[in-house]
Amino acid sequence: MKMTIVVHSGDLDKVMSALILGNGILAMGGDVTLYFTFWGLQRLVRGRFSKAPLSKMHFMGLGKWMMVQRMKKNRVAEPERLMEDFKALGGRVIACEMTMELMGLSKDQMNDQWIDHYGAVGSYVKETENADNTLFI
Amino acid sequence: MDPDIIVDVIGETCPVPLVEMRKAVLKAEKGKVIEVKGTHPASKQEIPMAVDSLGLKLLKTEESDGIWHIYIRR
């Protein structure tokens, strides 16, 4: 099974969902490509991965703090670990170059060790051509 | 059953048991026996599903004192 996921949201809960789905597919023998664009691309900027807000109940950081405490208590894997596992299992990451230009980001600001390819919509289409499924998160 | 590799995911939750199982499978040589032990209920059902999807052999599943043990042949 091959899947592509557009990670448009930069919210912690949504990026985690994309990574958990991705890791599950890789663990069961599939192929996954994550296409990080717009707010999602912010998560690939060095030092900003865990700066993500919650999509709901963020409450200026208090809600996120409570969620992170609950995640630790329930031993939910931290987002960084999910990303490291995604790469260790062979997951592919594409960073949207148009968003980088729009937001004034250069490659040396990005977490380059996670990124397999810098591309635009054509790269997403090419990856999705042979996919069984695609998601937009 | 004497496993060649033991994957301890006791106390871990989704998706860690599946991911650690997959990492062990990637590392193991063909024919080796991997034991995965954990407590996450859904993973007890889903690791055998993954074993099937990966075309591996599920040797045995057992549970005692709330800890399940899944044996897989690479």
Could you list some keywords that capture this structure?
heterodimer, A: 137 residues, five-stranded parallel sheet, B: 74 residues, Translation Initiation Factor IF3, four-stranded mixed sheet, 4 strands, 35% strand, globular
Give the biggest sheet of chain B. Answer: 4 strands, mixed
Low-confidence stretches of chain A: none
Query: What overall form of chain B do the CA principal axes indicate?
Result: globular
H-E order of chain A: EHEHHHEHEHE
CATH class of one domain in chain A: Alpha Beta
Order of helices and strands of chain B: EHEHEE
Q: Which architecture of chain B does the CATH hierarchy give at level 2?
A: 2-Layer Sandwich
CATH topology of one domain in chain A: Hypothetical Protein Ychn, Chain: A
Oligomer: heterodimer
Strand ordering within the main sheet of chain B: 1-2-4-3
Distance between the termini of chain A: 19 Å
At the fold tier of CATH, the topology name of chain B is Translation Initiation Factor IF3
Q: Say how many strands of chain A there are.
A: 5
Most strands sheet of chain A: 5 strands, parallel
SS-derived structural category of chain B: alpha+beta
Structural class of chain A: alpha/beta
Total helical elements of chain A: 6
The number of helical elements of chain B comes to 2
The pLDDT mean of chain B sits at 96
Which percent band covers the strand fraction of chain B? 35-45%
Share in β-strands of chain A: 15-25%
Give a verbal description of the structure.
The complex is a heterodimer of chains A (137) and B (74). By secondary structure, chain A is α/β, with parallel strands linked by helices. Chain A has 6 helices and 5 strands. Chain A has a domain of 92 residues: 3-Layer(aba) Sandwich (Hypothetical Protein Ychn, Chain: A). Chain A has a 5-stranded parallel sheet, with helices on both faces. In chain A, α1 runs parallel beside α4. Chain A is globular and about 40 Å long. Chain B contains 2 helices and 4 strands; from the N terminus they run βαβαββ. The longest helix of chain B has 13 residues. Chain B starts with a strand and ends with a strand. The relative contact order of chain B is 0.27. Classes of the chains: A alpha/beta (137), B alpha+beta (74). At the A-B interface, α1 and α4 of A face α1 and α2 of B.
